[in-house]
Records
---
Amino acid sequence: MQFHRQAALAALFAFTTFAAWAQMPSYGPPINLEQAKRAIAAGQAEARKNSWPMAIAILDTAGNLVAYEKMDDTQTASIRVAIDKGVSAAIYRRPTKVFEDIVAKGGAGLRVMSLRNASMVEGGLPIVLNGKVIGAIGVSGAASDQDGIVAKAGADALK
């Protein structure tokens, strides 16, 4: 009985995940440097307002770095974490918070931990312009929900 329940849950998860993938926006033309700088500036303004030292990375649709800045006094580990979050958001076309929530539920959802370049911590967001993913922003330096707030400010700067 337990095996059937686990199999049913796994099937439901696979179907839900597949449906979510089918609804992801398509890729558009990749973000340019001017747009990337605007997103970083907006993210930094939000971070400064809250006294959060942050590393902010902007990536194109393939997960390649377009622009990056680290505010003074940002922890060293945040350098790579911000880039990793941005890569994840760009190549999977979804916020890293989605992966965080799936992993937090445990069970069959833990298999996302094996996805290559998937970051399971909030702070990575796809950047969507005119309904198309043009890149992503990755932020690290504070608590993950605070990283998410800064990432949203940066991504929203291009709407």
Note: The chain has one domain: 25-156.
---
Amino acid sequence: MTTPETQLRAASLRVTRPRVAVIEALGSRPHADADTVATAVRADLGRVSTQAIYDVLGALTRAGIVRAIEPAGSPARYELRVGDNHHHVVCRRCGDIEDVDCAVGHRPCLEADDDRGFVIDEAEVTYWGLCPDCRLAPPAPTVTPGAAAG
């Protein structure tokens, strides 16, 4: 297992406490949004600005240490699993996100029927449904707009 310090040095980034703390936070919280990462980093380091967290996430994403995913209707989420072109399954009810390997063979989704001249190096596939917990839970009550609560 590679340490955060080793990952940062390999990407020619300075090793700083906030960068290490962000990597460690994502190690135990895959698919976390920036607010979740900030809460974890603050619990570890104390006072760290929200802008500093976004700056670190941006630097780590550009360096290829972190991958940002943006499911529709959700803030950006961050993960340490990079470089393998995996996909995600998202729960429509609770928003839980899990990793899903490519459906068939080695990166078949990178071979488009018509690539329009692009050299494709990544594909984002998102599967949507209900997670096991939400599938077993009773349906949430629906509220009709304008109806009086009784």
Note: The first strand starts at residue 32 and ends at 33.
